[in-house]
Every structure is written in structure tokens, then in C-alpha cells.
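Please fill in the sequence for the structure shown.

STRUCTURE ENCODING:
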């Protein structure tokens, strides 16, 4: 499968699925939230209206209480009570009504045609026997009933919340009601607003998804171009190595320059990034990390100078590998103070200059790793020729490391991988064994022309 199709399958489709799933979940949660808010809002508004109705009915009861509490049951007292209730209006649609317990309409100022009629069987559009239920809730003491009734100002049947109380001695129930169309209007506005916000959220997710897809495609194209460029560089490097062994060695020396500084520069980078994060966070310990980064840069500069002056040791060309290794160990002892036990055989690799250079570079890299990372106190170093093979062994008593991560692409360092590449290029073998307190690196290089002449 071509790279662009891999990018689509492994990145684009999962991204679309993830964004779509998130958008659906957000929309569902938003709708649930709208329903909950509607229920809370409706209950709050109904509670306020219940309190308002109780207040109105209490005022009406107070207005006729002088007639009812006096004990009078004559027609004149009842007629006066009806007159008072008929005249107590509020707002455009607020009025009081009264019925006797048989359903006879006694007071209804906004629908006077109903007065004197028995409305016991009157039902609203949903089949609720309104008058019967009003009489029942008044008798039960609850007093509240929600039903549908014609609104005077609009002449349309509308939801209404009524509240009634009973005058038992007279056989009356009277009360008032508030129309609920404003509650539904508020709920409708809330639904519209939330629907608009849900739409905006889904649209935002869509924009994010489109932007992410464009980034993925751009990244895929960049990766494709990068892979082609990398392949071209590798082919050119391979051709160059085939043309001349000398150019190959120069390429390896250039890689040594890079590898020797990689860990230092990564450490400096980490220190500077940490300093940046602390500076952004407003912490006062930024200077410490900057100092560590500068120290690392100083060491890197010193190493560049050392490598520049010693790209190829003269002893390796003039006196051979054993002498060059001896000088390398002397410099290591003087620089680090670490004790070294050396057993270097007089191995003659004059006929295999590339193999000698590889062994020298591996020894140089191994000692550098010990100096920087092992924390060792003692090093054992050996070089000998064994039946057409040259064996190099370097051991230390340092802290050790996890050898399983040597070939991991994100292990942080590439020194050991470069050693392995170098030795495998010559058909040799590299082995590393490491535990806390002992790390040993062993290299065997096939070299039929090698001659061993004892140890020094």
C-alpha cells in the first residue's frame, strides 16, 4: 500500500470517526442539558405563579370575609360577595370565578354568558372535566389545577393554572387562574438558543476536523518528500562508498562528529526547554537550567575542538592499532582518573586499514560512553588475535544500562547502534552485556591477515 493511502487509512479515517463521535456526544449531552434546564425553569416559574395565585386568592378572601365570617347565609350577603368578586380584576386576563358544589357558575366577569349555567360536565380540549376537578381540589385542600381555558385577550384556548378554595357553609368554591403561555414562550426561546449553540458547536467541530485533515495531508506529503530525499541521500552515500574507500571513511568520521555531540546537544536542548517552561511559568529557578545548558555547550565546544585536532590519530597510521589504543587509554586515564587494566596484544592489522580504524573508533566510543554515563571506577581493556579474528573486549564496573533499548528508535542515543553498524559492515559481531556493577562490550572482527604477537 502506498504511503498516501496508509496516511488516509491510519490517520484520516480514525480522525474523522473520533471528531464525529465527539460531536455526536456533545450534541446529545447538550440536548439532555436543554431538557433539564427546561424542566427546572418550568418548575421555578410554576412555583412563582402558585405563590402569586395564593396571594391573589388570599386578598379576595379578605375582601369578602366580613360577609362570610359574620355568619350570614342570606341571599343579600351572597349577592354582595358575588359583586365584590366580579369587580376584583387584575391585568388583562386576571379575574375571579365562583361555582357552587353542583357546578353552577356564580361569578365569571370575563365570560358573563356562563353565569347561571351548570358547567359540571364542561371539559377542555384534552377531555379534562374542569369544573368537577376544581371542586375536587378545593375540597382536598390542595387547590391547584392545570387545565385549558379560553384566554379573554386572545380568545384562544390556552394552558392555565388555577387555584381555588372552598366556602363550605355556602357550598361555594371560588378562585382565580394565571395563563401559562408566557412559560411556553420562555421554554421555546431557550430551546431555540440551545439549538443554535449546538449547531455552532457541531460546525466548530467540523472546522477542526477539516483543519486536522489538511494538516494530516500536508504532513503526509512532507513525509513522502522526506522519505524520497532520505532514499536519495542513502543511494548517493552508497554510490560514494563504492567509488572509493577513502570517501567512505571520511563519511564515517563526519558521522562520528555528529554522534559524539548528539547526547550533549540533546541534554543542552532539554535544559533550555526546561528553562523556557519555568520562565513561562514565572518560576525563579530559570538561571540554574540555563547554567547547565551553558555548561553543556562548553563541553560540546571542547569536544569539537578535540575531535577537530584528532580526526585521525597519527599513531594509527605510523605505528598501528596497538600503539594508537595505548595512547587512547593513556589520555583516558589522565582525563578521568579512572583505573585501567590493559592487555593489548601486538596485533598487526596493517593489511586491513579499514578494520583497524573501525576497532579504534569503537574503542574510542566505548571509553567516551564510560566516561560520560557509567560512573565507573575501574576499566578492563583487551585486544588479541584469535585464529583469523581480532577480539576487542572492554568492561567497566559502572551503573549499567538496559541493553534491550539499544535498537529502540527513541532510546535517546545512537552510539551503540553506530558501533553495531560499523562492525557489521565488516562482517563482524558486537555483543553487549550490562548489569549494575558490570558492563562488557565485546567485538569480534574477521581478519585472516591479522597476526598476534603476544600482549603488552
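FILLED IN BY: designer on duty
SEQUENCE:
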Amino acid at each position: 500500500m502506498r504511503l498516501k493511502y496508509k496516511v488516509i487509512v491510519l490517520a484520516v479515517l480514525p480522525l474523522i470517526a473520533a471528531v464525529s463521535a465527539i460531536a455526536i456526544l456533545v450534541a446529545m449531552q447538550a440536548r439532555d442539558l436543554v431538557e433539564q434546564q427546561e424542566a427546572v425553569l418550568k418548575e421555578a416559574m410554576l412555583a412563582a405563579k402558585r405563590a402569586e395565585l395564593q396571594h391573589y386568592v388570599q386578598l379576595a378572601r379578605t375582601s369578602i370575609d366580613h360577609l362570610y365570617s359574620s355568619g350570614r347565609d342570606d341571599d343579600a350577603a351572597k349577592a354582595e360577595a358575588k359583586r365584590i368578586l366580579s369587580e376584583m380584576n387584575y391585568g388583562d386576563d386576571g379575574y375571579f370565578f365562583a361555582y357552587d358544589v353542583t357546578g353552577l357558575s356564580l361569578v365569571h366577569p370575563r365570560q358573563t354568558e356562563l353565569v347561571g349555567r351548570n358547567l359540571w360536565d364542561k371539559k377542555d380540549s384534552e377531555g379534562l372535566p374542569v369544573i368537577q376537578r376544581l371542586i375536587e381540589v378545593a375540597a382536598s385542600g390542595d387547590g391547584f389545577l392545570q387545565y385549558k381555558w379560553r384566554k379573554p385577550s386572545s380568545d384562544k384556548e390556552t394552558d392555565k393554572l388555577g387555584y381555588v378554595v372552598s366556602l363550605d357553609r355556602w357550598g361555594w368554591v371560588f378562585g382565580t387562574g394565571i395563563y401559562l403561555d408566557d412559560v411556553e414562550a420562555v421554554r421555546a426561546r431557550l430551546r431555540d438558543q440551545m439549538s443554535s449553540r449546538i449547531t455552532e458547536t457541531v460546525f466548530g467541530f467540523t472546522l477542526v476536523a477539516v483543519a486536522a485533515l489538511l494538516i494530516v495531508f500536508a504532513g503526509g506529503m512532507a513525509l513522502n518528500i522526506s522519505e524520497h530525499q532520505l532514499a536519495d541521500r542513502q543511494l548517493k552515500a552508497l554510490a560514494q562508498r563504492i567509488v572509493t574507500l577513502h570517501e567512505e571513511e571520511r563519511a564515517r568520521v563526519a558521522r562520528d562528529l555528529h554522534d559524539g555531540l548528539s547526547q550533549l546537544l540533546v541534554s543542552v536542548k532539554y535544559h533550555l526547554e526546561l528553562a523556557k517552561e519555568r520562565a513561562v511559568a514565572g518560576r525563579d529557578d530559570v538561571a540554574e537550567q540555563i547554567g547547565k545548558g551553558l555548561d553543556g555547550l562548553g563541553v560540546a565546544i571542547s569536544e569539537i575542538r578535540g575531535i577537530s585536532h584528532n580526526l585521525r590519530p597519527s599513531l594509527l597510521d605510523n605505528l598501528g592499532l596497538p600503539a594508537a589504543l595505548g595512547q587512547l587509554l593513556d589520555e583516558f586515564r589522565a582525563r578521568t582518573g579512572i583505573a585501567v587494566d590493559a592487555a593489548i596484544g601486538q596485533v598487526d592489522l596493517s593489511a586491513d586499514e579499514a578494520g583497524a580504524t573501525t576497532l579504534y573508533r569503537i574503542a574510542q566510543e566505548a571509553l567516551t560512553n564510560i566516561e560520560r554515563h557509567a560512573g565507573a571506577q575501574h576499566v578492563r581493556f583487551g585486544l588479541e588475535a584469535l585464529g583469523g579474528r581480532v577480539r576487542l573486549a572492554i568492561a567497566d564496573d559502572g551503573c549499567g544500562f538496559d541493553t534491550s533499548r539499544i535498537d529502540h528508535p527513541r532510546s535517546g542515543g545512537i552510539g551503540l547502534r553506530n558501533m553495531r553498524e560499523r562492525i557489521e559492515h565488516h562482517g563482524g559481531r558486537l555483543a553487549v552485556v550490562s548489569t549494575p556493577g558490570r558492563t562488557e562490550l565485546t567485538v569480534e572482527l574477521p581478519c585472516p591477515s591479522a597476526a598476534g604477537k603476544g600482549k603488552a
